[in-house]
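Q: What would this complex look like in 3D?
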Amino acid sequence: MTASTLTRLLRWSTFVAAAAWPALSHAAGGTGAGMPWWVWPVVLFAVCFALGLVAVPAGIGGGVLFVPIVSGFFPFHLDFVRGAGLLVALAGALAAGPGLLRTGLADLRLALPFALVGSVGAIVGALVGLALPAAAVESALGVTVLCIAALMWRAKKSDYPEVAQPDKLGAALRMSGIFHDHAAGREVAWRVHRTPLALVLFAGIGVLAGVFGLGAGWANVPVLNLVMGAPLKLAAGTSGFILSFVDTSAAWVYINRGALLAIVAVPSVIGMMLGAFIGARLLRTLKAAVIRRMVIALLVVAGARALTKGLGWWT
Amino acid sequence: MVDVKATGRPQEQGPSPEQLRYARVLDYGMKGGLIVLIAGFAAYMGNVLSPQVPFEMLPRLWGLSASEYVRESGMAAGWGWLGMLDKGDVLALSGIALLAAVSPLSLALLVPAYAKSGDRAYLVVTIALIGVLVLAASGILGSH
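A: Here is my prediction, written as structure tokens for the whole assembly.
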């Protein structure tokens, strides 16, 4: 696929999303009953395809964009959007998992303890989120998404953090190893510190994932990289792997509550995965910094929309 | 960061055998789940099987909360969907259940590997994680 084809594809998907925007805004406050039912899954597929295109170059999972945008501009109840959001994040994490594990960019030993505490947190979060009034969750979602946008704007990252002394728990669990950095053309040894603090943080991240149906890569990567000192590439790969457990736990709670609609979840998953597949190739042709700024702007709009919708200021 | 080639520091090299085994099972499960998901949704959209909720009723129901939707649509909560697989919209969700089952099934393969190697800490973590995932899937905590 050539760069010009990819650029045309990006323009096309942006056009579809832009064309759909007035209709979405008009119907978002109601049930969308004034439009033929099939319009919604078609537009949802197109929007998710566009989100998938930008999510990979921006370095985030699609779930964090999906929930605020779809809950803000589509007529589906927040319960179904959160259920679909978890599925979108889960499908992406599962699809990437085998390759990351084989290449050593995700580490089983590093992931499992955090997957355990994160999964417990996600179940608690899902139960709490489904018990709370939708307006309260929507408002809290708005605040959370605005905070994520601020975090993305301000966040630092470190390719190869220095860990002078591994902590006792991390050492006992043998959280260390070597991965081959293809870009740098060398093997990199890694080890971690502050494991107990990270366990607490992952439990909290799991709760947020469960309450809001968000993929949690935006929080997992900074904790693994900046708090624990894992190399950035290993942190990003292992984050996706942890996410596959955390989102599985929360997704089962949503499935058992009947909070999954095939007409919402399946076009979202397929659209996002197709978009992410092509978005990964766009990495070579687009400036990641430009996409990243665009995603931050999208998050600000979606977060503000969720907040004002939750507070009843703009329904 | 420590450059291994520079320091010659002895370390475990590359992904462990259990990690590679996990990746293989995850790969099969993920691809199977996606195929079932897409095929089930195509059957739903093609009206091969009549849905529990007619398409025309969807705009009236998708704005309801999950509990209201279950009540209004007659859709089963918990594992009751297994008895409704002859409905197009329920069949379309079966791929989702498969995707959500891939991780606990893949994890189960790690138990004998950790038990054999005497890695007690990870044996306990793996069994506990399987227990948490099974608890979430059981519906004991979440279903109506």
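A: To summarize the key features: The first helix of chain A runs from residue 3 to 27. Chain A has a mean pLDDT of 85.
Q: Very helpful, thank you.
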